[in-house]
């Protein structure tokens, strides 16, 4: 299913560059399939793992062929010409064509300002995630080592997706706010992962004494911090909406005035039906 929806996202949206986000997930999937095949210990472990990877690759090839065929068939129906939008956009932006510099260039600080504007809380918390996950892994007890390791593994995949996307975008001279949209959910998830891991680190510190008072303090701290984060998010969201309405609400006021003016010149006509019986 991951391969299926990944191919749909890349081939059906008309913006194949989103495939960069699936690279870390693809590596994780290949390694997982390989290690799972080895764990079964059926004959030669290396051969078993290699066969599992080949089968996975064949699944991907079949799915890509089917989806790409459907997309090209639909395009042929409307344009009466065999073409591949995915190939065309890659040829124009990556291999030939005038390049995206034609539409303007911005400094690297453009995305930094944009992230602090649109993801004012999630962006700093997401940056803290690698350090917090590392500290949690060091402080975790032996009983929680496996769980912490598994969560850190998925966190590594998630953060790798964000890092690769930012690296590509920052390296391009042409920058747009919409290019950041694909990683907004990833940044929010990374921020949540950072907060969760940080609270676990605090819990490990308070739980070291093993007293009921330390446990109560940690519970109060956890609930209080979550309430503060939610309240702060709501306040910032409300402030952003109010700012947009105040500074960019001219067109809304214009239409309100125009509607009132038109209504005053042409009063509404009301009709009533009278029962003649």
From TrEMBL:
Keywords: Endoplasmic reticulum, Glycosyltransferase, Membrane, Transferase, Transmembrane, Transmembrane helix. It holds the Pfam family Glyco_transf_22. Its main location: endoplasmic reticulum. It is a multi-pass membrane protein. One of its GO terms (molecular function) is alpha-1,2-mannosyltransferase activity. The chain crosses the membrane at residues 15-34, 46-79, 122-139, 151-171, 183-208, 220-242. The keyword Membrane applies. GO terms for cellular component: endoplasmic reticulum membrane. Its EC number is 2.4.1.-. It is found in: Endoplasmic reticulum membrane. Pathway: Protein modification; protein glycosylation. GO terms for biological process: protein N-linked glycosylation. It is an enzyme of class 2 (transferase). It comes from the Eukaryota. Belongs to the glycosyltransferase 22 family. This is Mannosyltransferase. It comes from Spumella elongata. The lineage of its organism: Eukaryota, Sar, Stramenopiles, Ochrophyta, Chrysophyceae.
């Amino acid at each position: 299913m991951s391969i299926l929806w990944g191919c749909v996202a890349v081939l059906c949206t008309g913006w194949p560059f989103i495939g960069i986000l699936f690279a870390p997930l693809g590596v994780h999937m290949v390694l997982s399939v390989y290690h799972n095949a080895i764990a079964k210990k059926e004959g030669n472990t290396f051969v078993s793992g290699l066969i599992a990877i080949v089968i996975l690759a064949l699944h991907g090839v079949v799915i890509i062929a089917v989806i790409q065929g459907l997309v090209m068939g639909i395009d042929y129906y409307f344009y009466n010409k065999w073409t591949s939008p995915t190939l065309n956009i890659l040829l124009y932006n990556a291999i030939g064509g005038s390049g995206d510099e034609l539409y303007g260039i911005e400094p690297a600080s453009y995305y930094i300002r944009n992230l602090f504007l649109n993801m004012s809380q999630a962006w700093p918390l997401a940056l803290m995630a690698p350090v917090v996950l590392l500290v949690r892994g060091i402080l975790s007890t032996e009983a929680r080592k496996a769980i912490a390791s598994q969560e850190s593994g998925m966190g590594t995949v998630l953060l790798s997706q964000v890092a690769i996307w930012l690296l590509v975008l920052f390296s391009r001279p042409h920058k747009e706010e919409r290019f950041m949209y694909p990683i907004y959910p990833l940044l929010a998830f990374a921020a949540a992962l950072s907060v969760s891991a940080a609270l676990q680190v605090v819990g490990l510190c308070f739980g070291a004494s093993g007293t009921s008072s330390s446990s109560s303090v940690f519970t109060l701290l956890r609930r209080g911090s979550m309430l503060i984060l939610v309240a702060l998010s709501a306040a910032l969201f409300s402030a952003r909406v109010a700012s947009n309405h105040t500074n960019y609400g001219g067109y809304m006021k214009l239409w309100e005035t125009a509607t009132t003016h038109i209504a005053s010149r042409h009063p509404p006509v009301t009709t009533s039906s009278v029962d003649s019986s």
